[in-house]
Amino acid sequence: MSQTVMSVGFAPAAIETSGRQLSRRAMVRTSSGAAVTAAAAAVIASCAGPESGGPAKVAGKPATIIWAVRGGGTPEGREALLQEYKQVQPLATIEQFDASGGIAPSIEKLAAGLASGLPIDFINGHLAARQLIESIDLVQPVDDLVKRDRFNLSKYNQAALESTGKYDGKLYTLPYAYGGDVAAVAYNKTLFRQAGVKEPSSDWSKPWTWDEFREAMRRLTKSEGSTLTQVGAAGFGYWVHTAIMQWGATWLKPDYKTVVCDSQQTIDAYAKYTDLLFKDRVLAQSPGASLGSGNAFLNGKAAVDMPCCYAARFAKNTKGPNIEWAFITMPKGTVSSLDVSPVIMGLAKSSKQRNEAWEFLKFLDDKSRLAAVEDRIPAVIPDIMPWIKQNFAEWPDSRAEMLAEGMRVAKPLEPLRYHPQWQRIVQEVLDPGWKEVREQTKTMTDMLRASKPLIQNIVDEHARSRRK
Q1: What is the pLDDT of residues 209-250, one digit of tens each?
Q2: pLDDT tens, 374-412?
């Protein structure tokens, strides 16, 4: 049962695991390898018993499912969710193993649990099957279960399902919610009116152009001498990929082998972004910006915001400032796309309750229950409109309905984000390089060209380790 974890750039992190039932015992925090082993052993002991050969509701036998939780909302939210599941599957018991933290620390926790003999059944909260397979070989294919139950895969964004759920042609994980660096784009109606700037489009088939966006940002930026007192946008997502994906550019090819950050397409795409940041100085991160503390958009100092992860939470945060706002499209380069990524769930290879874990997955997928607990946009496209009606009723003029189409047409995330060595690449290459660009001690083009061999070496090293 022992697993060997590949280096992902972090030392093993502390493990958290639950007791017998969430309603009876809170998470127990541990801080050493020995404690990890002891905690996992306690869960293993509680799970001992006869295995069931079929779905729990058919077999009629007790089944204990070990759920490795990354995300999963609040403990209270999960408690309510599991109480509901108990009504559907009264003989099922869900044990929780805490796999929280960043991608690398979470994988370290999972590896430690597996190495101690913990038979994890179900996982959630990660970004791509590839990361879980190539780091600790954690998840298993579910094509046979999908076929057996005629499970509907057409309800998901197909490009996202392909890039995050599949590996070597097999389906390993399913999306249940959307996270990412730009879950929506909002504009301040008042600031646009005051500047005489045309209202941006909320129609994904007719997005505003990059040139229209750039001109609007210039007109919406105010300064006193060299100090920026108002900016066009509070930010533009994540510098690594939000802007360049609007131009179809990437750092890594979809083959996960070839680094292309020095390609002319990527260099040109970054020029569009750095012009906003340094030449036009229209972003909150631009030199000379003095916008006070807090979110510049909520403080009325930025005309556009690109909130990450939780669009509904963004709306709630506008209550206090009483901003008149609405959602709009991303500006179009060659494409117009939100910078979002599915959050996935799947069955662990170590599972001793495969059918029962699959039933639990289907329960969480149905009505987008897990997405609701995490307060995220559902990955099930037909569930997005009901979610919008529930979460944006207080803002009837927000155009929130356009988020449903936005998720359907969103382009896949930069492949580099799904590489198992992503966090090492960030620490060793991307963050240091971007610091030099921000300090204007190195041009963006020079940074991209210098980064290529460094990232390629890490990618090649990972590939060689996989062949051993």
Answers
A1: 999 999 999 999 999 999 999 999 999 999 999 999 999 999
A2: 999 999 999 999 999 999 999 999 999 999 999 999 999
CA 146 – CA 349 distance, rounded (Å): 16
Sign of CA dihedral 295, 396, 340, 99: positive
Q: Is the pLDDT of residue 50 over 70?
A: no
Instruction: Inform me whether the pLDDT recorded for 14 exceeds 70.
Output: no
Which residue has 């189409």 as its token pair? Answer: 405
Burial (0-12, 13-18, 19+ Cβ within 10 Å), 171: buried
* DSSP state string for 29-81: E--SHHHHHHHHHHHHHHH-SPPPSS-HHHH-S-EEEEEEESS-S-HHHHHHH
What is the chain's percent helix, strand, coil content, to nearest 5?
40, 15, 40
Burial class (CB in 10 A: 0-12, 13-18, 19+), 53: exposed
pTM: 0.85
Please state which of the ranges 21-30, 44-53, 147-156, 306-315 shows the lowest mean pLDDT: 21-30
DSSP state of 380: S
16-180+342-391: CATH topology is: D-Maltodextrin-Binding Protein; domain 2 (3.40.190)
CATH architecture of 182-339+407-462: 3-Layer(aba) Sandwich (3.40)
Q: In the numeric block, which tokens belong to residue 387?
A: 């979610």
375: Cβ contacts below 8 Å, ≥ 6 apart: 73, 310, 312, 313
Q: Assign 161 to helix, strand or coil.
A: helix
The answer to whether 99 touches 70, Cβ cutoff 8 Å, is: yes
Dihedral sign, Cα of residue 380, residue 383, residue 387, residue 389: positive
Tens-digit pLDDT profile for residues 99-109: 999 888 999 99
C-alpha R_g of the chain: 23
- Give the C-alpha separation, 189 to 407, whole Å: 23
- Using an 8 Å Cβ cutoff, are 348 and 359 in contact? no
Q: What pLDDT, on the 0 to 100 scale, is given for residue 18?
A: 31
Please give the C-alpha separations between residue 251 and each of 218, 258, 324, 413, in angstroms, as whole numbers: 29, 9, 37, 11
99 is written with which tokens?
Answer: 């796999």
* 337 touches 414 (CB < 8 A): no
DSSP assignment string, 218-251: HHH-EEETTEEEEEEES--S-TTTHHHHTTT--S
Over residues 297-309, the mean pLDDT reads 95
Q: How far is CA 287 from CA 131, 229, 283, 292, 440, in A?
A: 36, 12, 9, 14, 10
Q: Angle at Cα 156 formed by Cα 151 and Cα 158, nearest 5°? A: 110
What are the residue ranges spanned by the domains of the chain?
16-180+342-391, 182-339+407-462
| Nearest CA among 13, 23, 153, 169 for reference residue 85 | 23
